[in-house]
């Protein structure tokens, strides 16, 4: 009893610390966002001023050139002009030359300020992106501490096993975040950075090589943006397939397994029995999809199968799913470093109120069967019931 109270106290302290950290990160994000908005407005003003000064400089430069020509004309034929005419010509040329120098200096300062603001905006974008990522990560940790860890603590009596299980969950979450971060950094982030750099060159290309060449650059930018958008959509699909919301469980599984077959050397066969158009509640569809996803990914990573079969039978009162592979199999009763995936599947099916059985042996492949019953309305989405 004292051990449980001690653990609860530790978790409460951690919750307080994590909550305070989340607030601090959020404040940093908000301050950065406000500074970003202020600098963005200033940048627009500076760009307008640069354009205005350039226009004034060009007009003044033309006037100064005319004034110098006038002064040269008066100097060559000074006998034909009065002293007052010569004086006015000199003063006019000198005044315009001074104005031109002032405008050129102002343009230089404005350009430097523009470049400084643009660099600062890029820094702030990175700060806001990192802050948002940290807030998301801290929220996951907070929710885990507030809910999952306490529930696991009630189920797992041994303190060492409890600690290992909690660390495994955090490790899996961190690995998933790293994977997503790498995919975004190596894919869309790099493409968007290239688009930004290329977009700044379009105007220079137009001025130096003509409009046709600039249009080619714009077409290349469109292609890069389309590729980046496709990569973002793929990452979003991996995080949560939107097809689950639009099409339902069976079509989404069919699409996912087809894509898996294309991306691996496995032969993946999918079959559906019963009423494939039945819609379940969102938490059931997500939970069942994740269980199948975990099962086939475990097979691909650890069992080295050549053939994987997934069968689903969907009825108004129950759903049954069988995942079978011809891989190298394992001993389900022996704990090993890969058992965390099986534990995760059991946790999911237990949370859904279903049953999960695993039949495997070394060299004999693996069969995973899950069964979930519900009444005609409990399992279905209210919009489609």
Automatic annotation (TrEMBL):
Q: Which residues form a coiled coil?
A: 29-56, 86-134
Query: Any idea where the Histidine kinase domain is?
Result: 179-376
Q: Where in the cell is it found?
A: Cytoplasm
rRNA processing in keyword set: no
* Gene3D superfamilies reported in the protein's UniProt record: 1.20.5.1930, Histidine kinase-like ATPase, C-terminal domain
Q: Which SUPFAM superfamilies match?
A: ATPase domain of HSP90 chaperone/DNA topoisomerase II/histidine kinase
Q: Which UniProt keywords apply?
A: ATP-binding, Coiled coil, Cytoplasm, Hydrolase, Kinase, Nucleotide-binding, Protein phosphatase, Transferase, Two-component regulatory system
Provide the primary localization.
cytoplasm
E.C. number(s) listed in UniProt? 2.7.13.3, 3.1.3.-
Cite the SMART domains for this sequence.
HATPase_c
- Alphabetized CDD domains for the sequence: HATPase_UhpB-NarQ-NarX-like (cd16917)
Q: Give the reactions, separated by semicolons, that this protein catalyses.
A: ATP + protein L-histidine = ADP + protein N-phospho-L-histidine
The molecular function terms in GO held by this entry are:
kinase activity
**What's its job?**
Member of the two-component regulatory system DegS/DegU, which plays an important role in the transition growth phase.
Q: Which PANTHER family match?
A: NITRATE/NITRITE SENSOR PROTEIN NARX-RELATED, SENSOR HISTIDINE KINASE YDFH
How is this protein named in the record?
Signal transduction histidine-protein kinase/phosphatase DegS
Which species is this UniProt entry from? Salibacterium lacus
